[in-house]
C-alpha cells in the first residue's frame, strides 16, 4: 500500500472514531482525574514521608518496612482476620438463604425485596448512628437490644464498647443490616436459571428440596466466586466502625481496630499520609493475591469437576 | 489504536507523577522576620479566622464580639469566620486539608491539646517579635508561655481556663452539708484537699444510700467520664508523682502510678464515681451528680437549666505535697501562609487589650478569667456572679499545669499517647486489676511511641 493511501486510511479511521471518542471523553477524563491520578499519587506518597502541611521527603521503602515493625498493624491484622473468618461465611450463607426466600413467587414479594435492600442505600454514617442507638449501653437509657436483654433477665451487653471479641461480634450483627446487597446478586443468579429445567424436573417428579439441591444450588454456583471475592474485599477494607466506635473506630483497647480503620487513623488523625499510602498498597497486594488464589482454586475445581 | 491508548496512558502516568508533588509549607516559621506594627487604619482587607464548628458557636460568638470593636479601629477590615471541624481527632486533617487547598485562614484556632501539632507542623509563625512589643507586666505571662515550643511562643491565648470544682448546693444542703452561712462546712474552702473532696462525697453517698432504690437511684458524686479528661487525670497523676515517660522512655510502671490507680479505684469502690463500664449517665447538669470538674465560667454553668442558680465553685482539690491543678488555653496563631501577618497581629493585640477582653466578657458567651491582671483584680470578668466563690479560678496559680507528656515526641504520636493514657484512666475506673491496668498502659504507650 502506498504511503499516501495509508495516511488517507488512517485519517478516515480517526474521523470515523471521533464521535466514539467524544462519547467516552467525559468518562475517560473522570477516570483519569479521580481514579488514575489518585492511584499514581498514592504510589508516590507511599515512598515519601508526608504530613499534608510541611514535610514531603523521599524515604524509599522505609514506610513499607515500618509496616512489619508496627505492633498496631499486628493487632489490626488479627482483628481483620478474625472478622473475615466470621463475616464471610456468615454473610454468604445468610444472603443465600434470604435470596431463596425472596425468590418464592408470593404476592407482594417485591415489597420485601425492596425492604431488605433499603439499608444498602442508607449512608454508612446514618446506619452507624442508628446502630449506636440500638446497641446503646447504659443504666438509665439503654438501647432496644439491651432493653430486651434486661427484660429476659440477662445483664446488659457493651457491644462495640467492649474491649474484647464482644466488640467484633457486635459488628458482625450490625453487618447483617447490609445483607440486601449480596442477596440481590443471588437473586439475579436465580433468574438466570432457565425455567424449563425446573419444569422438566417437576415432570420427572422432583420435589422442592430436590430442585433446590439439584438445580438451584449447582446452577447458581458460579455466582459464588463473585460474591466471595467482593465480600472478601469489603471485609478486608472494612472501616465502618469509624462512624460510631470510640477512638476513631479503633474501639476500647483497640478491640475494633481493623486494617481499614488503621489506614484512616494514620492518614487523617496522625497525618502520616505516606505510611498510610504504603499500608493501602500492601492491603491491595494481599487482596490481589487472595483473589488470584480464589480464581485458581475455582478453575481447579471446575476442571476437576 | 492500541498504541495510541498506550501512549495516552503513559502520558497520563507521567503527568500524574510530575504533578502530584503536594503543596507544602516551606517557609521558616521559627526564624526572625521584620514586623510592621504601623498598619494603616484605612487598610481595606479581609481577615479569615478559623473557628470550631461544633462548640455551640462559642468561639464564633466571641469573634463576633471582637469584630465589632475591631471595626472601629480598622473600619475597612472585614473579619470573616471560617468554621471547620476542630477536635482532637480531626484537627490535623482540617489544618492539612486547608493547607493543601491554599485556604488556611490568617488566624488559626488552637488550644492546649492541639497547639503542639500546629506548631510542630510549622503551620503558624513564631510570635516572639510581636510579644516583644507588649508590656508583659499587664498580663499573666505564664498563660502566654503555655503555647511555647522549643523556647518560642506561637499562640495568643484569648483567656484563661482553669479546672475548678463546681458543686450543686441544693444536693449538698439536702444531705446536711452546709454550703453557706456561719455554719458552712469547713471542708468547702479554697484550700480543700482530695481527702476533703472524698470525705464530702462519702457523706453524700451515705445520705443517698438511705433511699438508693427510689429517689437517689442514679445519684453519684461525680460522673465517671470526666476522669479521662487530660486536664483532670494529668494533674492528679503529677500530684501523685506518676509520669508516663522519663527521658523518652515509658516509665508509667511505678509505685507512684499504683498510688494513682488506687486513688481512682477508691472512687468507684466508695460509689463516689460509677465504674467506667457501668453505663451510668449520672451528670451534674442533669442534677444527678453533685460535683463536676470544669473549666468554663459561671455564665456557662448558669445556662444549665437544672442547676441554674443553685451551684457554687471551689478550686480543684489539692493532692499531696506537690499538688497540680489543670489549666489550659484557647487562642489563635497566625498562619505561616498568611500575607496579612501584621494585620492579623493587630486583631490579636486587640483581643488581649482591655477593650477586647471586656468585649468578650460583655458578650456573656463564656466568661472565664482574663489574661489581663487588671480585669481579674477588679473581678469584672464575672459580672452578675459576684456572690460565687470566684477566687476559685485564680487560686493556686503556682500549681497550675498544662499537659506536657507528649513533648519531645513527634506530633504524629501525640494522639496515640493521649489515647493510651486516656484508655489507662478508663481502665483504672473499671474492674481491671491495678497490675493489668499498668501493664496494658505500658504496652499501649510503647506501641504509641514505636
Describe the structure.
The complex is a heterodimer of chains A (305) and B (450). Chain A contains 13 helices and two strands; from the N terminus they run αββαααααααααααα. In chain A, 28% of the residues are buried. Chain A has a domain at 70-271: MetI-like fold (Orthogonal Bundle). In chain A, strands 1-2 form a two-stranded antiparallel ribbon. Helices cover 72% and strands 2% of the residues of chain A. The termini of chain A are far apart. Chain A is flat and about 90 Å long. Chain A has 305 residues and is an all-alpha fold. The longest helix of chain A is centred in the N-terminal third of the chain and has 44 residues, at 3-46. Chain B is 38% helix and 14% strand. The mean pLDDT of chain B is 89. In chain B, helix 2 (58-73) links the parallel strand 1 and strand 2. In chain B, helix 2 (58-73) packs across helix 13 (354-363), helix 10 (255-269) crosses helix 17 (434-449) and helix 16 (414-428) packs antiparallel against helix 17 (434-449). The longest helix of chain B is centred in the N-terminal third of the chain and has 18 residues, at 2-19. Chain B has helices spanning 2-19, 58-73, 91-100, 115-120, 128-131, 141-145, 169-174, 194-208, 230-240, 255-269, 298-301, 341-351, 354-363, 373-378, 391-394, 414-428, 434-449; strands at residues 45-52, 77-84, 107-111, 148-149, 152-153, 156-162, 164-168, 245-246, 249-250, 291-294, 311-315, 325-334, 400-401. Chain B folds into two domains: 45-161 and 328-399, D-Maltodextrin-Binding Protein, domain 2 (3-Layer(aba) Sandwich); 164-327 and 401-449, Periplasmic binding protein-like II (D-Maltodextrin-Binding Protein, domain 2). Chain B has 17 helices and 13 strands. Chain B has 450 residues and is an alpha+beta fold. In chain B, strands 3, 6, 12 and 13 form a four-stranded mixed beta sheet that branches. Chain B has a three-stranded antiparallel beta sheet with strand order 10-7-11. The termini of chain B are far apart.
Amino acid at each position: 500500500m502506498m504511503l499516501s493511501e495509508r495516511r488517507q486510511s488512517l485519517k478516515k479511521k480517526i474521523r470515523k472514531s471521533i464521535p466514539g471518542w467524544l462519547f467516552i471523553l467525559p468518562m475517560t477524563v473522570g477516570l483519569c482525574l479521580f481514579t488514575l491520578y489518585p492511584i499514581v499519587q498514592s504510589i508516590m506518597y507511599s515512598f515519601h514521608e508526608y504530613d499534608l502541611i510541611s514535610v514531603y521527603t523521599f524515604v524509599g521503602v522505609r514506610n513499607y518496612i515500618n509496616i512489619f515493625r508496627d505492633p498496631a498493624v499486628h493487632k489490626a491484622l488479627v482483628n481483620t482476620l478474625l472478622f473475615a473468618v466470621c463475616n464471610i461465611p456468615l454473610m454468604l450463607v445468610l444472603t443465600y438463604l434470604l435470596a431463596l426466600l425472596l425468590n418464592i413467587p408470593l404476592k407482594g414479594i417485591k415489597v420485601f425485596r425492596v425492604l431488605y435492600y433499603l439499608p444498602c442505600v442508607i449512608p454508612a454514617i446514618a446506619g452507624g448512628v442508628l446502630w449506636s442507638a440500638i446497641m446503646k449501653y447504659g443504666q438509665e437509657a439503654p438501647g432496644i437490644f439491651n432493653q430486651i436483654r434486661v427484660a429476659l433477665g440477662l445483664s446488659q451487653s457493651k457491644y462495640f464498647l467492649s474491649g474484647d471479641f464482644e466488640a467484633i461480634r457486635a459488628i458482625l450483627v450490625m453487618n447483617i443490616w447490609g445483607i440486601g446487597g449480596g442477596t440481590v446478586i443471588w437473586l439475579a443468579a436465580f433468574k438466570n436459571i432457565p425455567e424449563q429445567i425446573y419444569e422438566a424436573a417437576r415432570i420427572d417428579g422432583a420435589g422442592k428440596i430436590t430442585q433446590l439441591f439439584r438445580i438451584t444450588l449447582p446452577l447458581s454456583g458460579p455466582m459464588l466466586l463473585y460474591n466471595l471475592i467482593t465480600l472478601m474485599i469489603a471485609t478486608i477494607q472494612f472501616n465502618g466502625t469509624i462512624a460510631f466506635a470510640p477512638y476513631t473506630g479503633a474501639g476500647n483497647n483497640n478491640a475494633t481496630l481493623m486494617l481499614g480503620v488503621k489506614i484512616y487513623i494514620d492518614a487523617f488523625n496522625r497525618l502520616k499520609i505516606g505510611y498510610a499510602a504504603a499500608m493501602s498498597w500492601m492491603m491491595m497486594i494481599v487482596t490481589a493475591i487472595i483473589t488470584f488464589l480464589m480464581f485458581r482454586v475455582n478453575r481447579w475445581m471446575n476442571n476437576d469437576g | 489504536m492500541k498504541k495510541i491508548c498506550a501512549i495516552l496512558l503513559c502520558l497520563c502516568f507521567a503527568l500524574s507523577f510530575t504533578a502530584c508533588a503536594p503543596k507544602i509549607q516551606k517557609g521558616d516559621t521559627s526564624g526572625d522576620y521584620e514586623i510592621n506594627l504601623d498598619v494603616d487604619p484605612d487598610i481595606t482587607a479581609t481577615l479569615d479566622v478559623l473557628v470550631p464548628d461544633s462548640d455551640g458557636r462559642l468561639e464564633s460568638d466571641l469573634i463576633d464580639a471582637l469584630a465589632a470593636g475591631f471595626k472601629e479601629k480598622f473600619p475597612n477590615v472585614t473579619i470573616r469566620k471560617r468554621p471547620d471541624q476542630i477536635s482532637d481527632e480531626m484537627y490535623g486533617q482540617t489544618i492539612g486539608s486547608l493547607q493543601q487547598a491554599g485556604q488556611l485562614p490568617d488566624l488559626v484556632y488552637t488550644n492546649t491539646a492541639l497547639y503542639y501539632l500546629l506548631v510542630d507542623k510549622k503551620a503558624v509563625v513564631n510570635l516572639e517579635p510581636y510579644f516583644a512589643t507588649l508590656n508583659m507586666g499587664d498580663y499573666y505571662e505564664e498563660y502566654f508561655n503555655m503555647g511555647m515550643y522549643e523556647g518560642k511562643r506561637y499562640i495568643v491565648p484569648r483567656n484563661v481556663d482553669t479546672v475548678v470544682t463546681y458543686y450543686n448546693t441544693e444536693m449538698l444542703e439536702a444531705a446536711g452539708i452546709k454550703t453557706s452561712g456561719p455554719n458552712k462546712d469547713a471542708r468547702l474552702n479554697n484550700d480543700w484537699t482530695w481527702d476533703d473532696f472524698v470525705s464530702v462525697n462519702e457523706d453524700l453517698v451515705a445520705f443517698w444510700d438511705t433511699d438508693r432504690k427510689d429517689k437517689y437511684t442514679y445519684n453519684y458524686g461525680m460522673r465517671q467520664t470526666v476522669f479521662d479528661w487530660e486536664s483532670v487525670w494529668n494533674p492528679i497523676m503529677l500530684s501523685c508523682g506518676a509520669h508516663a515517660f522519663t527521658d523518652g522512655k515509658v516509665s508509667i510502671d511505678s509505685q507512684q502510678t499504683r498510688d494513682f490507680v488506687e486513688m481512682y479505684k477508691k472512687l468507684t469502690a466508695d460509689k463516689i464515681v460509677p465504674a467506667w463500664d457501668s453505663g451510668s449517665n449520672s451528670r451534674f447538669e442533669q442534677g444527678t451528680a453533685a460535683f463536676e470538674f470544669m473549666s468554663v465560667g459561671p455564665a456557662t454553668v448558669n445556662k444549665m437549666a437544672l442547676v441554674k442558680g443553685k451551684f457554687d465553685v471551689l478550686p480543684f482539690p489539692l493532692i499531696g505535697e506537690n499538688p497540680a491543678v489543670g489549666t489550659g488555653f484557647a487562642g489563635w496563631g497566625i498562619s505561616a501562609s498568611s500575607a496579612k501577618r501584621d494585620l492579623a497581629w493587630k486583631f490579636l493585640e486587640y483581643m488581649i487589650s482591655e477593650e477586647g477582653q471586656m468585649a468578650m466578657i460583655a458578650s456573656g458567651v463564656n466568661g472565664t478569667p482574663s489574661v489581663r491582671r487588671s480585669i481579674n483584680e477588679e473581678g469584672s470578668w464575672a459580672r452578675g456572679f459576684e456572690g460565687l466563690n470566684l477566687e476559685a479560678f485564680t487560686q493556686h496559680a503556682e500549681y497550675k499545669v498544662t499537659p506536657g507528656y507528649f513533648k519531645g515526641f513527634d506530633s504524629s504520636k501525640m494522639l496515640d499517647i493521649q489515647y493510651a493514657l486516656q484508655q489507662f484512666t478508663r481502665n483504672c475506673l473499671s474492674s481491671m486489676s491495678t497490675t493489668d491496668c499498668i501493664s496494658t498502659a505500658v504496652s499501649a504507650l510503647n506501641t504509641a511511641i514505636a
